[in-house]
Automatic annotation (TrEMBL):
Protein known as: Glycosyltransferase RgtA/B/C/D-like domain-containing protein
Region called Disordered, residue ranges: 1-25
Keyword annotations of the record: Membrane, Transmembrane, Transmembrane helix
Lineage: superkingdom: Bacteria
Transmembrane segments: 35-53, 59-77, 89-107, 119-137, 158-175, 187-211, 223-241, 300-321, 350-368, 397-416, 423-440, 533-555, 567-590, 596-612, 624-645
UniProt keyword Membrane present: yes
Native species: Actinomycetospora atypica
């Protein structure tokens, strides 16, 4: 049984009895309501910018700025009307990046010292918006102007999904209130079903929305299904990003500093030798523009706005899947993206990648879409590819791998079929990514140190097959565990760092009797249980198998269209790349395999949905039940929903444990870090902070050089400063990682009390010095 390919229609259809009224002469609103409403939107942006101190104006401004420019861009290029909604946010990002980079470049020569301030940014955006509006107005509308957008206002059913992220938001804030006093180690703070926590209720609502979308897909249209996916994705993202008094995440600590620097300066310096983060417009120019236009702080942008932008990615993936699949199986594919553990836990802490992934998903959608004008499609492909280049380097490199695999196989097939359009488009996208990355990272920003580091890794370590496989583990066990950082005992870690300091850091002078204070094990993680891993790992492998089978069929089947063959070949390339990342320690160090999986899933889920759709023609009920079980089980495992009953799990539902210590940042910890950074003597001496303390110190000071994570008495310099977080002082735990080895051990309070003085404390964080 074959299914004809078709477009997703994320715009609501007009009532079948509706007949558009004839426009009266000179009645512009009746003739072109799209033009009038767009013009009104541009005027509203200009009128509201002076009022951006009001929170209501901020909400409206962000909604307009992140959607209206994209709508105009899609309409100006005359892309199919059903693509307007899924591409509105990525298109707006392109307009913002283009106008922001332009005003940042031409502003200083024209005497504008701070071009990323409200007036220059607004003028640049309005000029681009007016130019696009003029193009739209001079062209005949591709569809009846009464079709679509205005009818969204009458869709009261779309309000139901909006409840899901709202509950997740309130649940995260309630947990924060419970955790603001002191963390309860290993215990869920107001986060159990028994206490009726909104956080757990929010997680249950997400699960219900995803399962309900699969079961009820036949009775819902694409608009409602897209809204459900957006609501579920946003709820998951907010449940993590809002969990902390300060910034949530790991890489985002560095990204946030770059944002603040650009916003304060009102200008972005493109010369960034060795500074890959500072070279990305997603964490420099873009947040400076949004701050200038809306008045929203960098912290709110990171915690609220960027996750709201990234939540469009599952909707775009749904539109991509609907190019080939019926609604139920397209929804399954997009839902598999939302239930990944790294979707919620990692992405809110990776501002740059949230923007890069949204643009890359849009690039895939445009590549597989039927666009009447090849020129328009090519222009949008080039713009999206360049957008990925300037927003995130790793997404660009892995995107080249995904598209490159599709290009090779599709080109070989075109030799026999003589159908070259898809080859040209994917070739153009790949070429733009390669050349754009080369020029941007070398000639423009000089920030290509990440590539040289990866090359050096291969030169030193080679392929490095499963480097973290424990002694006695066979290859299968090592593959199931993946390239995870091994946990060693306190004694082993002390021996490791003592050797390193004795060889490479001889300038460190410990106190004479430091050896009398050995570190001890505490909170050592339980060994990895293969039985626990098999459920989640097995479901993932079933999904990979389904995607792989679909890819082979689509590539080898004679009646496959060029677009189907392109998707199949990209799936095959992605599967091979993911296997290499899991096997090779060197590749895994170059690009985090969890993030690579999320990027690859944008095409892999098409194969999963395709296989499920084929199976449903044979056993429809069994296939539907299997889809529900797969999505439900993966979400329950990866969201820590099951762990909420026992008090364990991730930070979105827990008030203690390793995940909490890693990601929950108290404002008092940042305050202590800033105090330490302001001490002139500390800038000339070594600072010690454990693995997660270094993140707080970086957030507060921006300093990375001269900060050591080894809180081991034998290697602490007698003139050092020691920065201790709440996990160190309240729970007595230290987590450090050195030379690829992780250890959890007791905080050396007895040693510090004997040989160092408390020079600062605020009840949450403490600073020691002699």
């Amino acid at each position: 049984m074959t299914t004809a390919t078709k477009y997703v229609d994320l715009t609501p259809r007009a009532n079948s009895h509706h007949r558009p009224a004839s426009a009266a002469p000179g009645d512009l609103l009746s003739a072109r309501p799209d033009v009038v409403l767009a013009a009104a939107g541009l005027v509203a942006i200009a009128a509201l910018v002076p009022l951006r101190a009001s929170w209501a104006a901020q909400v409206v401004l962000l909604a307009l700025v992140l959607t209206l420019p994209g709508v105009l861009l899609v309409r100006a290029l005359r892309l199919p009307a059903p693509l307007t909604l899924p591409l509105s946010v990525p298109g707006s990002l392109l307009v913002l990046l283009t106008s922001g980079l332009a005003v940042n470049t031409v502003g200083p020569p024209l005497g504008i010292e701070a071009p990323l301030r409200p007036v220059p940014v607004l003028v640049a955006l309005e000029l681009v918006g007016v130019a696009l509006l003029a193009i739209v107005a001079t062209r005949t509308p591709a569809v009846d102007p009464h079709y679509g957008w205005t009818r969204l206002l009458g869709r009261w059913d779309l309000l139901a999904p909006a409840v899901v992220p709202l509950v997740a938001l309130l649940g995260a804030l309630r947990l924060n209130a419970a955790d603001s006093g002191s963390p309860t180690s290993g215990v869920v703070a107001a986060g159990t079903v028994v206490t009726g926590s909104l956080a757990v209720v929010g997680a249950v609502l997400v699960l219900a929305a995803l399962v309900g979308g699969i079961v009820g897909a036949r009775r819902a249209d694409d608009v409602l299904l897209g809204a459900t996916l957006y609501a579920a994705g946003l709820a998951v993202l907010w449940s993590f990003s809002l969990r902390a008094e300060s910034i949530y995440g790991y890489d985002v600590m560095t990204e946030f500093r770059k944002m603040i620097e650009t916003i304060d300066a009102g200008w972005w310096n493109a010369f960034r030798p060795g500074d890959a983060y500072g070279a990305m417009l997603s964490v420099t120019v873009l947040p400076a523009q949004l701050n200038a236009l809306s008045g929203v702080s960098a912290e709110i942008l990171v915690k609220v706005v960027f996750p709201a932008v990234f939540a469009t990615t599952p909707v775009i993936v749904y539109a991509l899947c609907r190019r080939f699949l019926r609604p139920r199986w397209a929804f399954l594919g997009a839902a598999l993206l939302v239930v990944q553990p790294n979707f919620g836990q990692q992405m809110p802490g990776l501002a740059k990648q949230e923007i890069g992934f949204a643009l890359f998903a849009a690039l895939l959608l445009v590549l597989v879409s039927r666009v009447a004008s090849r020129v328009s499609q090519a222009v949008f492909v080039v713009l999206l590819a360049l957008g990925v280049v300037v927003t995130h380097y790793s997404s660009t490199y892995f995107g080249i791998v995904i598209l490159g695999g599709g290009l090779v196989i599709t080109a070989v097939a075109a030799v026999f079929t003589h159908r070259w359009r898809q080859v040209v488009m994917v070739g153009l996208a790949t070429f733009t990514l390669v050349v754009g990355a080369g020029l941007w990272n070398t000639t423009v920003t000089h920030s290509s140190s990440n590539l040289s580091d990866a090359a050096l890794g291969f030169e030193v370590s080679g392929f490095d097959l499963l480097p973290n496989r424990a002694i006695g583990d066979d290859l299968l066990t090592g593959y199931i565990k993946g390239n995870t950082t091994p946990q060693i005992s306190a004694a082993q870690y002390e021996q490791l760092v003592t050797g390193i300091y004795g060889t490479d850091r001889r300038y460190i002078l410990p106190v004479p009797d430091a050896a009398a204070y050995p570190i001890t094990d505490v909170g050592t993680a339980a060994p990895v249980s293969i039985g626990q891993l098999l459920v989640g790992f097995g479901l993932q492998q079933i999904a990979y198998l389904m995607a792989g089978v679909a890819a082979l069929v689509l590539v080898l089947r004679r009646r496959s269209s060029p677009t189907e063959r392109l998707v199949g070949s990209m799936i095959l390339g992605s599967v091979v790349a993911l296997a290499m990342l899991r096997l090779s320690g060197t590749l895994a160090a170059a690009y985090n395999q969890d993030r690579a999986l999320l990027q690859a899933l944008m095409v892999l889920v098409v194969g999963v949905g395709w296989s499920a759709q084929r199976l449903s023609s044979w056993r429809p009920r069994v296939t539907t039940v299997g889809a529900v079980v797969m999505v439900g089980a993966l979400f329950a495992l990866n969201s820590s929903l099951l762990g909420s009953f026992s008090g364990a799990g991730r930070i979105n539902l827990a008030g203690g444990g390793e995940d909490f210590q890693r990601f929950y940042t108290y404002r008092a910890e940042v305050t202590a870090a800033r105090w330490l950074g302001d001490q002139a003597a500390s800038r000339r001496q070594v600072v010690y902070a454990d693995r997660y303390g270094t993140l707080r110190f970086l957030l507060g000071t921006g300093r990375q050089v001269g900060v050591f994570p080894e809180l081991v008495p034998k290697v602490i310099d007698k003139s050092a400063w020691i920065y201790a977080t709440s996990a160190n002082t309240r729970e007595g735990e230290v987590r450090s990682q050195t030379a690829g080895q992780m250890a959890s051990y007791g905080f050396p309070s007895a040693f510090l009390d004997r040989h160092f003085d408390v020079v600062y404390t605020n009840g949450t964080s403490t600073v020691y010095h002699r």
